[in-house]
Every structure is written in C-alpha cells, then in structure tokens.
Design a protein that fits this description.
Helices cover 81% and strands 0% of the residues. With 293 residues, it is mainly alpha-helical. It is globular.
C-alpha cells in the first residue's frame, strides 16, 4: 500500500529533480559563454553602421532575434543531450531511481529543469533586446525632433519612428522562439533515451534541425517538380509528421518587414510546438521505461 502511494505521480518529486537539474545546468560553462555571447551580440547591434531609421531597426531586430533563436536552440540541444548519459556515467541515475521515483517523473523533472533554464535565458535576452531597441528609439526620436520641418511633418516622422521600433508583435515572436527551443529540448530528450552518447544525440538532433528548417522549401519544390501524386504526397506527409516544421516558428522576417502577427497564426504555431513537445516527451517515457540500466 505504501509502495503504491509512493509510485503515484508526484509534482513534489518532479520539482525536486527539476530544481537540481536547473542548478547543475547553470554551473555549465557553455551556458554562461553562450548567454554572454548572445547578450553582447544583441547589445552591440546598436552600434552598427547608421542607415535610415527603418533599415537600422530592421537590422537590429534581425540580429537580436536571430541571436536569441540560435542561442536557445543550441542551449536546448547541448543541455538536454548530456542529461541522461551524464547521470549514467556518474551513476546518479541509479541513486535517484532507487528511491520512490518513477522513471517518467525523472524524465519530466530533467526536462522541466532545461525548460526553466531556457526561460531564464530567453527572458534575459528579451530584456536586453527591448532595452537596446528602446534606447535607440529614443535617440532617433530626439534626432528627428531636432530637424527643421512643419509640425505635421514632425508628427508623421515621429509616428513612423515609433512604428518601426517597438511594437507588440515582438512578444509573440520571442514566445515562439522559446516554444521552438522547448520542442528541441523534448526531441533531444527522446533521442537521448536510446542513444549511447551525448555526441551521437547532438549529431542526430543537428541533422533533424536542418530537416525541420528545410522541409517546407523541399516540399514546395517537390510538389512543383513532381506534381501532387499520391506517392509524393504520402512521403511528404510522413516527413511532416515525424519531423516538425521548425521554419514555421520563424516569424522574424514578417516582424522585420513590419507585418502584424495574426493571433490565429500564433495560437496555431504555439499549439503545434506544444503538441510535438508532448508527443516526444511521451515517446521518451515509453523508450526509457524499457531501457536497461
């Protein structure tokens, strides 16, 4: 009776594992190096060569959001790929699972620690990005206000500057960058449950990463060349089912061009990322339950 009660899913045990995992990951030098590099890249973007204020804000957003996407993706893969192999090597996993901790609780706790790390990194970079963007906006507004023009022209110019700088569409773009990183973390966790080393896991995820980003372009090309035959359509559907379309999470081009992010598109893309993340986590649990330790 006591054993059954202990074996029920426990958020307290998951939280304990997640907290411990997060603490271990924050001590990694790679985390600090990548975060500092990304913050410096975002911060230094304000010192780029001066163009028109529209071009300047476009380049600033492109560099900053691109740095955030690359950093979070790298961190998700590197941090998650080492979790299980490192615990097996240190024999920590045997100590944890010898206690009343279910294997799925162990996986969920490990993944939660990674997602917390990604959230803090994303928030830090997002804050730096918004500070840099706001500072540059104020500078451009001040320079524009000093120019000689009629009141109507001045108001139009100030509105154009504000429209080119800060806008509400930046927030969903950053949110999707985080969801994409969480998806990669769950996928990496799944691969690591049957991989033998963290290097193998990383190589496989890099391969999948490129497939995920290129599949939309490849799908369009094949449909144009081969038509919409059932063999081609079935193959492309299988690829899309197994490998998530990571390019769908990239809204940077639209943000840079000044396009608004439709709420329906954001909800659909976020739901897609959460769905794939949940599926990969469940698959990781199934594989890990059958794994001999």
């Amino acid at each position: 009776m006591i054993e059954a009660r202990h074996r029920r899913f426990s958020f307290a045990r998951v939280l304990a594992i997640a907290t411990n995992t997060f603490t271990e990951l924050t001590r990694l030098k790679v985390f600090h190096v990548l975060l500092i590099f990304a913050l410096l890249l975002i911060g230094s973007s304000v010192f780029m060569a001066r163009f028109s204020f529209q071009q300047e804000f476009q380049i600033l957003k492109d560099v900053a959001l691109g740095a955030m996407s690359i950093f979070t993706s790298l961190l998700a893969v590197v941090a998650t790929a080492r979790l299980i192999p490192q615990d097996i090597e240190d024999r920590t996993i045997y100590t944890i699972l010898a206690k009343p901790v279910a294997r799925f609780e162990y996986l969920i706790g490990k993944l939660a620690g990674v997602l917390l790390l990604l959230a803090i990194g994303t928030l830090a970079m997002g804050a730096m990005f918004l500070i840099v963007l706001y500072a540059r906006e104020q500078t451009v507004l001040h320079e524009t206000a000093r120019q000689t023009m009629s009141p109507e022209q001045l108001n139009d110019a100030l509105r154009a500057v504000r429209a080119s700088a800060l806008n509400a569409d930046i927030v969903p773009c950053i949110a999707l960058i985080y969801i994409k990183a969480c998806l990669l973390g769950a996928l990496t966790l799944f691969v690591s449950t049957f991989a033998t080393t963290s290097v193998f896991t990383t190589v496989v995820i890099v391969f999948i990463y490129f497939i995920g980003h290129l599949q939309a372009t490849a799908r369009e090309y094949w449909l144009q060349q081969s038509g919409a035959g059932w063999i081609t359509s079935t193959f492309l559907a299988l690829v899309a089912l197994i490998f998530p379309d990571l390019q769908a999470f990239n809204l940077v081009d639209g943000i840079i061009a000044g396009a608004a992010v439709p709420l329906a598109l954001f909800v659909e893309t976020a739901a897609l990322g959460i769905f794939y993340g949940a599926i990969y986590t469940l698959l990781a649990g199934v594989v890990f339950y059958g794994k001999e330790l």
